Amino acid sequence: MYFVLLSSTYMRLWLLALTGIFIGLASSSAAAISLPEAQQLAIQYDPWQQTSSLQERALVADSSAAATLSDPVLSVGLANLPTDGFQFNQEGMTQLKVGLSQQFARGDSLEIKRRLILNLAARHPLLRAERQEKLKVMVGKLWLDAFSTQQRMHIIASSRPLFVQLSDIVEASYGSAQGRTRQQDVIQAQVELARLDDRLSALATERDSKLASLAEWLYEHDNYGKDLTLSDSWPKIDVPDAKILHLLQQQNKSQLAQILALHPSMLAAEQQIKSQLNGVELAQQKYQPQWGVNASYAYRDDDVNGNSRADFFSVGFSLDLPLFTNNRQDKEVESATLQAEAAKTEQQLLLRNLLAQALNNWQAAQQTQQRIQQFEQVILPQLAEQADATLNAYTSDNGDFGDVMRSRIAQLNSELVLIKLRNELAQYQVQLLYYFKPANFSVKQGDSATVNHAGDK
Q: Which Pfam family, an example, fits this chain (predicted)?
């Protein structure tokens, strides 16, 4: 019996060593990536940033083209050629005519159109800033999910020797035929060990899946298949400054709304409103007449007798008269005005949504923090005392082995719940930085060629 017990112990230690090696290889096969490094890599390899930059440059180029007059029109024609002989010098009115005409824009429509397009271009640096913060949140949550799974694997792996020891104790007690140990206790110990190994295997699959989802955002296409490992310690996540935290604690919605009005998404919406107001101005310019000038020179050949004929020069202007405005200009101005008002309403809804989400996020973070304190200060210490008490009772032949296993499993499960709560709290903190991190609310100088031009009006 002693030989069987010893062999069983060596076998479990061997399995434990393999488990430790498996986890160690998973965490050391490549350079570990921290949370800030993962966020910066996601921003670095985000193709949308380049797309937005190209679209901005295209709009800036388009604004220059929009502020330019249309090209003049050159016309060449042969006028009044007689059909009875088709001779150029037969009739005095036959002439070779060359003309040039130019149309001018209505009022200030060219300048207004230039400002409209520049305001659209000025949205892109703000959209890129918002995109970067969204990427930080999304990649941060993916990183934290993978990291928490990795931490749960460490907790289970570190708890496994205790369950091995409990299995050895119950086998030794059963083999010596002393105490109240039953065969079902031995089987229960073996089953719980098998379940523990199964949980490790399931968590390994879950971790690999989450690492694959995270790797999608961290590398270029040719490096997508490279190994990805995470750091071994919980990340230190920044918090908003003390003033913002105080406002959140006080639920001061008015001042929080003033701060959120500087959020990149709000500033991008403000640029959209400016462009819509430019559209109203542009529609109003259609009440102005559109002018045009034209000039032509007509050459005439000498007559059949050799007498010289005078050439002709003509000049003139044209304009349209916007007299019937009820169904055209008036409606276009009305449409542009309504679109501008709709953009203002969307901005107000965006602010309301940001404020509600930020407050909900803060409250959820506070409640999660309280749960973490409850687990750390009350639940886990009491479960540890309960586990020790049941084990002491069992070794003193005054308790049941099932109670020992249940108390240890409850302790392990509570430790895993604590990992989950810490993950949730970290994700709330990452999300909160999307709303209130000061770096969110500025665009670096030189990030856009439109920043200094779009604010003309």
A: OEP
